[in-house]
Design a protein that fits this description.
Elements (H helix, E strand, L loop, with lengths): L1 H10 L2 H21 L4 H16 L4 H22 L1 H26 L8 H14 L3 H4 L20 H20 L7 H21 L23 H15 L5 H28 L2 H11 L1 H6 L4 H27 L9 H14 L4 H30 L4 E2 L4 E2 L13 H15 L8 H20 L1
Antiparallel strand pairs: 1-2
Helix pairs in contact: 2-3, 2-4, 4-5, 4-11, 5-11, 5-14, 5-15, 5-16, 6-8, 6-9, 6-14, 8-14, 11-14, 12-14, 15-16
Length: 452
């Protein structure tokens, strides 16, 4: 065992680690470049980030390679297959949401089942002011005349990124005030209700004054203006490599990917600093034992409201980003299952672990958009053919649509959570304190077993 440990350590440190990392990154880049429609190639490309993270190399090396991948490789492969940028954008959005919920659940120990409400606040904020909805208000949903003006120019989007943070933070405080005395299941039920209240309000605030346009949603929502010289510069630099001139729609996908990447880097820095600060230690004390935290003089009300406000602000900025990226939002975008999905990411990755929740978000998005949808698409193609299953001689075209893997997303995620709770309760990448607690529990169990 010691020889194996020494061998693995040798592989993951020094020059060998650098060589293996570069080999993985280069091979993944070439594969996904020459096979832009291959889901396996894209999955292999995503694993290059985890190799870069896992290897014990210098921070400068990791940062340099990560920047080359993020700023050069991803835009190139994204132009060759725009669906890749869609997936990576969703990874960024859900990573930010998971990091925000991790503040509330992982750092402060407050179970929130209505987190998607803050996401909706940011999205509807820009949707209202960045669309024609202000001038649609006097008309019932679906009856507004064509040609109505927009209230604000598209470039106001950048201002609303900050306003979305403020609006969501205030909403988080509003939610936090009435639930300060609640814990555990009672807190979860109240936050669940809050999330549903926001969704129902968005669904019904189309009368008597049409504020949200009800179930029909708000569209078109403006995007910021991209100067022509930026499009020309991109095509001049990358046009020869991508093999074509990128259209405005494709450039917008690259723009929103880069903006989401910038936002998530800022969120990671903020979460790291908070975790290592007095506020983070106060949250940890509240999470472990509220009574002891109060006895030690920690301001419980202030710390809980801070957790709700900061966690909500992360969702608010991503809501603004989503509204502009999609140019359409509706209440169904913010249903209860979205909150459960983000909570799944936190638990799967490791509550309290910043790297863990990002990994959890990436895994869930890949399972949902790549694995399940890919299998469903493959089964759909088989149904349209005359192929039969060997041995049993069953025609694929007779296979029921109810067996599509995409319809069993909730079942798969539920099974994953059960497996994680049994075999890896700390998550894929547990926070350091949780690792120590689990090791201590294992050693105590081993000692008690030996004594018996």
């Amino acid at each position: 065992m010691s020889n194996l440990s020494q061998f693995l350590k040798k592989l993951t440190t020094g020059k060998i680690a650098i060589f293996l990392t570069l080999a993985h990154v280069l091979s993944a880049t070439l594969w996904v470049y020459y096979a832009p429609l291959s889901r396996v190639a894209f999955f292999y490309f995503i694993t290059a980030f985890f190799t870069l993270y896992a290897m014990s190399t210098s921070k400068l090396f990791k940062f340099s390679v990560a920047m080359v991948i993020a700023l050069v490789v991803v835009p190139i492969i994204g132009i060759r297959n725009i669906f890749y940028l869609e997936i990576i954008f969703q990874m960024s959005v859900f990573s930010a949401l998971a990091l925000g919920l991790n503040i509330v659940v992982g750092f402060a120990g407050l179970l929130d089942l209505g987190y998607v409400a803050f996401y909706a606040v940011g999205a509807y904020l820009w949707a209202f002011f960045g669309s024609q909805q202000y001038y649609v208000m006097p008309y019932p949903a679906g009856t507004a005349p064509a040609g109505l003006p927009f209230l604000l120019p598209g470039n106001a989007f950048f201002l609303f990124l900050f306003l979305g943070i403020i609006a969501a933070a205030i909403t988080g405080i509003i939610l936090g005030l009435p639930v300060l005395r609640l814990r555990g299941d009672y807190l979860a039920i109240v936050t669940l209700g809050f999330g549903e209240v926001i969704r129902v309000l968005a669904n019904n605030m189309d009368k008597p004054v049409n504020i949200t346009n009800g179930p029909q949603g708000i569209t078109p929502i403006q995007r910021p203006t991209i100067p022509q010289f930026a499009i020309d510069s991109f095509n001049a630099i990358f046009g020869g490599i991508t093999g074509k001139q990128a259209t405005l729609a494709e450039i917008y996908n690259v723009f929103f990917y880069l903006l989401a990447l910038l936002v998530i880097i800022i969120i990671i820095l903020v979460a790291n600093r908070l975790n290592d600060s007095k506020i983070g230690r106060a949250w940890a004390a509240i999470r472990d034992d509220e009574t002891a935290a109060i006895a030690m003089g920690i301001p419980l009300v202030k710390m809980k409201l801070t957790a709700f406000a900061i966690g909500a602000s992360f969702a608010g900025v991503m809501g603004v980003l989503l509204a502009s990226f999609r140019t359409f939002i509706s209440p169904e975008t913010f249903n209860f299952m979205q909150s459960i999905g983000v909570l799944t990411m936190v638990i799967l990755g490791g509550a309290g672990s910043i790297q863990g929740v990002i990994l959890g978000a990436v895994v869930v998005v890949l399972l949902n958009l790549q694995v399940l949808q890919g299998l469903s698409l493959y089964l759909s193609q088989l149904r349209q053919s005359d192929a039969v299953i060997p041995i049993i001689n069953f025609a694929w075209k007779d296979l029921s649509n109810q067996l599509d893997p995409s319809k069993y997303q909730k079942l798969l995620f539920g099974f994953l959570l059960i497996v994680m709770m049994i075999f890896r309760p700390g998550g894929l990448i547990p926070m350091e304190r949780k690792k120590r607690e689990l090791l201590l529990e294992e050693s105590e169990e081993t000692k008690s077993g030996a004594s018996q």
